[in-house]
Design goal:
CATH topology: Cytochrome Bc1 Complex, Chain D, domain 2
Distance between the termini: 52 Å
Radius of gyration: 18 Å
CATH class: Mainly Alpha
Strand content: under 5%
CATH architecture: Orthogonal Bundle
Largest sheet: none
Structural class: mainly alpha
Order of helices and strands: HHHHH
CATH superfamily: Cytochrome c-like domain
Number of domains: 1
Length: 102
């Protein structure tokens, strides 16, 4: 029993030690992505030029990051956004979340 607990503790601590830290936002990269991908529909500052597309300005960073991940993985369905998010890395999504959150 003690051996099992010790083994579980070692495995758990090893997993924690190897976990990657969350990506830090990169404002320059976010601006580049926004210019190339996002601005046409959501506006350069996140204020959509049309009511057909949601404004992203001021939304919580975690919400934007999560929604982009859901589009990329197919959890959230939208053909346009799935295509747009397909090339984004996790770090890109974090950067975009921070960019639009302000």
């Amino acid at each position: 029993m003690k051996r099992t607990l010790l083994l579980a503790a070692v495995v758990g601590l090893s997993a924690l030690a190897n976990a990657q830290a969350p990506a830090k936002p990169d404002p320059a990269k976010a601006k580049e992505i926004v210019t190339q991908i996002c601005a046409a529909c959501h506006g350069a500052d996140g204020t959509s030029p049309t009511s057909a597309n949601p404004s992203l300005a001021g939304m919580p960073a975690d919400y934007i990051t999560t929604q982009l991940a859901h589009f990329k993985t197919g959890i959230r369905q939208n053909a346009i956004m799935q295509g747009m998010s397909s090339t984004l890395s996790d770090a890109d999504m974090v950067s975009l979340g921070a960019y639009f959150a302000g």
